[in-house]
Amino acid sequence: MKKVLIYGFGWTGQSMLQLCVKIGFECKVLDDNINLDFTQDDIFIDQKGITENFDIYFVCIINKESAKEAYNKLKDAGIPKVKIKFISTYDYKNKMAFLVREYFKEPSQVLKKWLEDDQSMTYFHSQMKAMLNEYYQIKKSNADSLLEWSNKIRSTMIGQTIFAKLYTSALIKSDLAHIAYPGFNIGISFEKKEDKNFYFVQKIDFEAIMQRPKDVKLVACFGNSALRVEYLPLEDTITAFLQKKLGKKYIVLNFGVTGYTIYEQMMLYNALVFPLKPEIVISCFGGTDWRTGIVSCEHLVKTHKMTYTPGFYEYAYKKVTKSELPLYSEIGNDRKAINNKILDDDVNEAIACRLRQFNLVTSGGGGAFYAFIQPLLPCKLKWTKEEKEMRDKERKLLEHTLAYQNEIIDNRILKYVAGLKDKIRDCDFVCDLNEIFHKSEESIFTNHWIHCNAKGNEMVAEKIFEVLKQKGIVG
Fold first, then answer.
1. Is the pTM for the entire model greater than 0.70?
2. Of 141, 158, 192, which one is at a domain's C-terminal end?
3. CB-based contacts of 115: which residues, under 8 Å, 6+ apart?
C-alpha cells in the first residue's frame, strides 16, 4: 500500500486524511502542535518519523509562514523536493465519498499524477474544485427530493420533537444512550417506550396539564432511578402511592430520570416543568450526587457547584472530540480512580447550593418546593438477609465495573448525609427519608443500594404526604 505523510492536522489536514484514506493510501499524520502524550493512536508520529519511506509528503497548512517552516523541516530531513507538495483546500468531506472514484481511481495512478503535479498541486486543486462543483449540483438537484423525503419521514413520527425524530430515524442506536436536549439530557429507556420524546415512565400530556382546572393542583416529582422505578410495576412507585394519598384534586407526575443529580433535576424543571406552573415540586436526591461527585471535574464541582453524571456529559463530549483522555468514571476496576482534588465537603457544598437555588426557582414560579434525601441502604442499621445478598452481589459487580462506588457506599455515605444535614440546617424544606428506615428490620431495599421495594416506596410516599400536610400545603 502506498504511504502518505500529512503534515498539519487542522481543517486542511483532516480533509486530506479523509480523502487519502478513501482513495486507499496508508496515512500518517505529523503536527507540531499535537502533544503525542495525549494519544495512543499510532497514526500520529513525531519529527523522527519523517525519515520513514513515504511516497509523498503533503504540507496541509494554510498559513504561508508556517507552511514554509514545515517544508524546510522536511527538506532538512533529506526528503526530495519532488515528493513535497502543498495542499490549500479543505473542501473534501466524507459526504462527497461517492464521487471519489470518478476523480481519483487507482491509488498508484493517483500517486503518479500527484508526483507529476507542480509543488502547489495546481491540477489536484482544479480536480477538487470540479468535484466540489459537481457535489453542489447534485445536492441542488436533489434538494426537492430531499425535502419531500424529509417531510415523508417526519409524517410518520407525529408528536415527536426533532431530537426524538433524529433518534428514531437513526439506523444504528448502539452508541446512543441519551437524547441531548438544549440544557438537559434524557436517558433512553428500552422498557418505558410510550413516551418517545422524554421516556418518562408515563407519557405526559403537557398541553392538557397546562389547561388543568384551577382547583386541580400539579405535583411535579423529580429524582433518579429510585423515583423513576423501572424495576417495579407503576402502581408500586412513590408517585403512584402519593397520588392515592392526595386524591383526585391533585395530579402527581413522575419526572424521574435515571442518573439525575439535584442540579440536573433543576435543569429539567427549568426546561419542561416551569411553564406548567406546578403548585408543588418534590425532589428526591442524594444517591447520584454522592455517587458521581468524586469522579467529576473539580472546577465544576468546587467552583461552580455542579454535581452531574459524567456518563451524560463527559462521555458524550469525549466521543465528539475523539480525545483519548481516560475519565475517572471509565477506570472501572480501580477503587483509587477518583478525583482527589474533590473533598466530600465540596460535593455537599455543591448540593446545598443547588438545593437553595431549586427552592428559589420554584418559589419564583409560584410553587412550593420540598426536597427529600432519598433512602440509602448504608443508613439502615439492620440489613435483612435479602438486603445483604443484594449488596454482596452488587459489590462484586461494581468491583469489576465501577469499583470506586463500593468505596462510597461502604465507607462514605453516612458521612455524606451527616455533613449535608449540617450545612442545610436553615433549609426547612429538606427532610431526610432515612430517618423512617433507620431502625427498620424489614426488607426495604431491593435490586440496588438506592432502590426501595414496594413497601419502601409506600413508606416514602406516606412521609412526603405527612410533610406536606404538616407544612399546610395539602389538606
1. yes
2. 141
3. 55, 56, 82, 83
